Amino acid sequence: MSQAFWESRYQSGDMPWEKGAPSPGLVDFLAAHPELARDTVCIPGCGTGHDVRAWARAGFQAYGYDIAPSAIRLAVRQTRSAKLSAQLQIANFLQDAPPLLFDWVFEHTLFCAIQPGERDDYVRALLRWLKPGGQYLAVNYLIPDRDGPPFGTTRDELWQRFSPHFDLLQEWVPRSYPNRTGLELMLWWRRKG
Ligand SMILES: C[S@@+](CC[C@H](N)C(=O)[O-])C[C@H]1O[C@@H](n2cnc3c(N)ncnc32)[C@H](O)[C@@H]1O
């Protein structure tokens, strides 16, 4: 979908994904892993930045990117109000060169927001933005929908796309927002090489 499409969704307030809180699965993951080094994390398609602030609050060096200028404006404002430190910038994750190579990429409702025909580009972008040996934590949305966004996926598709490049460290069904209960799957991968 184009930048104009996403920008108009923010400008008209048509944002059903906006829950006013970070992904519950991410919140639980961060609480369960105090041992992780507080490295750099890229959150592409970060929207208004709830997940960016969750990583920042946990002590990581958090960088949020979104294609929609209004999303970044809102994310900057809310991050300042929360007195947290994070980098927030407009970027097209699928096309742009990364400003640095990240230790982590966190996926939450970007994979399901892009056109299914762009998923090869998504995997290529992930390999461009993430360090070799870096970690990819994903909250995947396993819905059947073909008329998105959101566009559905399956565990099989995720395995076929990511396992050639990543080793799977862990997989679980997370706690979710009420209307997504049982529809999310978290996959924690480490990039090969
Ligand atoms: C469904 S929303 C999810 C926002 C946020 N992850 C959340 O869960 O609240 C998808 C977001 O991805 C952004 N987006 C779509 N395509 C993008 C791209 N190619 N690069 C960066 N952001 C993109 C949209 O502007 C939108 O903010």
What are the SSEs and their pairings?
Layout: H1 3-12, H2 24-32, E1 40-44, H3 50-57, E2 61-66, H4 69-81, E3 87-90, E4 102-108, H5 119-129, E5 130-141, H6 155-162, E6 166-172, E7 184-191
Parallel strand pairs: 1-2, 1-4, 2-3, 4-5
Antiparallel strand pairs: 5-7, 6-7
The structure holds S-adenosylmethionine.
S-adenosylmethionine (SAM) is lined by residues 6, 17-18, 44-47, 65-68, 71, 92-94, 108-110, 113-114.
Structural class: alpha/beta
Ligands, ions, cofactors? S-adenosylmethionine
Please bin the fraction of helical residues. Answer: 25-40%
**Number of DSSP strands?**
7
Uncertain regions spanning at least 5 consecutive residues: none
* Rounded mean pLDDT score: 97
The major β-sheet equals:
7 strands, mixed
What's the gyration radius in Å? Answer: 15 Å
User: Ends: how far apart?
Assistant: 32 Å
Helix-strand sequence: HHEHEHEEHEHEE
Which percent band covers the strand fraction?
A: 25-35%
